[in-house]
Amino acid sequence: MLPAIDWLALFGHFLLLSLLAIGGAITVAPDMHRVMVDQMGLLTDAQFSASIAIAQASPGPNVLFVAVMGYQAAGLPGAAVTLFGIMLPSTTLALAAARWGHARRDWRAVQAFKAGMAPLVIGLLFATGWILSSETAGWRHGLLTLAAAVLIWRTRVHLLLLIAAGAVLGGAGWV
Amino acid sequence: MKDQLEPLAQPSSPKDLFVAFTALALQGFGGVLAVAQRVLCEQKRWLTKEQFLEILAIGQVLPGPNVCNVALMVGDRFFGWRGAFAALAGMMAVPLAIVLLVTAVYAQYALQPAVAGALKGMGAVAAGLIVGTALKLAAALRVNPMGLGVCIGFIGLALVGVALLRWPLVWVLLGLGSLAWAFAWRRLRAVPGARADGP
Fold first, then answer.
1. What are the residue boundaries of the structural domains of chain A, listed by start?
2. Which residues in chain A (81-110) have CB-CB distances under 8 A to chain B?
3. In chain A, whose CA is at the least distance from the CA of B67?
4. Cβ <8 Å between A170 and B67
């Protein structure tokens, strides 16, 4: 079991990372690695990478990889500490900012912000798709990504069906 | 355009939000964003594409997981902090239990090549879902005051900066974001004046 001071250090560190995680918790994963693997020795390298892979393959928001890390490091209390740490500051801020913006939705600055950000958000989504699919080499992998993109864009095919097709094709060794 | 003109629905209670967000989170393998867009805009009709894009923009700029920020803001919009809590709890509670269970059994199967292959295939599809969602949301840009051409330019800049040049996201948001903000600000001022002064 971890000493109390380590619990506190871990919680404090995740509180801080929460406010730095612009673009999602995955953007501060390198710093989680620095603290949990290199400094505190709570996780091995393999456990760290597996945490991200498990969360991505499971249903739900990807931020849950943080809970998997805490769980592998120190069981359920560990999961609670890391997940609450990463969520508490950012959710409080999001709620406050949304209310501030909604109350001033007639301001030109607020409207300009929304209009200006819209294409950037779409560009970031394209970039995320690009980065995710270019991390794995191979044209068949890229083709599967492209096919899924067109199907979701143009048809109403069920998303779970697409994911299942990906799992079957991957499991059979095609991608 | 048809989408935006149809009447919008509302969740009936925070419990309704909790159930809807649990259901959509459970369909989100490799990310919830694609499912969230489909359920909130197309199935439930609680939000238009423009509203979803606005909320997502705020969720992207602020720190923290984007889809959790979206859940909070959607819940808050309908039922205040009770709605925000219900939506976020729906998004997190059941998936958290599942992911911890998966972690507990994962070690036994991690080395199977079929399992590793299946994860890879799901990853490829998950990337495609995000791209497809971006293509769908792009339809909302037709009513953007900056004009479609400028919007496409900003999409290209953000894509190249983040995906190819690997600029830190903070600088992309601050740099391109303030540029786009200033441009949209000017456009919004120009529109009412244009009637009096001519085009």
1. 1-103
2. 83, 86-87, 89-91, 93-95, 97-99, 101-102, 108-109
3. A61
4. no
Q: Other C-beta atoms within 10 Å of B112: how many?
A: 11
CB-based contacts of A106: which residues, under 8 Å, 6+ apart?
Answer: none
Burial B116-148 (b: 16+ CB within 10 A, else e): ebbbbbbbbbbbbbbbbbbbbbbebbeebbbee
Query: Is the minimum CB–CB distance between A49 and chain B shorter than 8 Å?
Result: no
Q: Report the C-alpha gap between B154 and A51 in whole angstroms.
A: 34
Q: Closest chain A residue to B82 measured between Cα atoms? A: A95
Mean of pLDDT over chain A? 89
| Residue showing tokens 């602020």 | B62
Of B50, B137, B185, which is closest to A112 when you measure between CB atoms? B185
The interaxial angle of helices B113-137 and A45-57, nearest 10 deg, is 60
| Average pLDDT rounded to a whole number, residues B25-44 | 90
* Longest alpha-carbon distance in chain A: 55
Write the pLDDT tens digit of every residue in B45-90. Answer: 999 999 999 899 888 888 888 899 999 999 999 999 999 999 999 9
Max CA separation in chain B (angstroms): 73
**Runs of H (alpha helix) within A1-64:** 4-20, 29-33, 45-57
Q: What is the rounded (10 degree) CA torsion for B151, A136, B60, B134?
A: 40
What pTM did the predictor assign? 0.81
Assess: ipTM above 0.85: no
Cβ-Cβ contacts under 8 Å for A80 (sequence gap 6 or more): A70
pLDDT one-digit tens code per residue, A25-75: 877 888 888 889 889 999 988 788 778 878 877 899 989 999 999 999 999
Give dist(CA B164, CA B146) in Å, integer: 25
A108-134 and B113-137 helices, crossing angle to 10° = 150
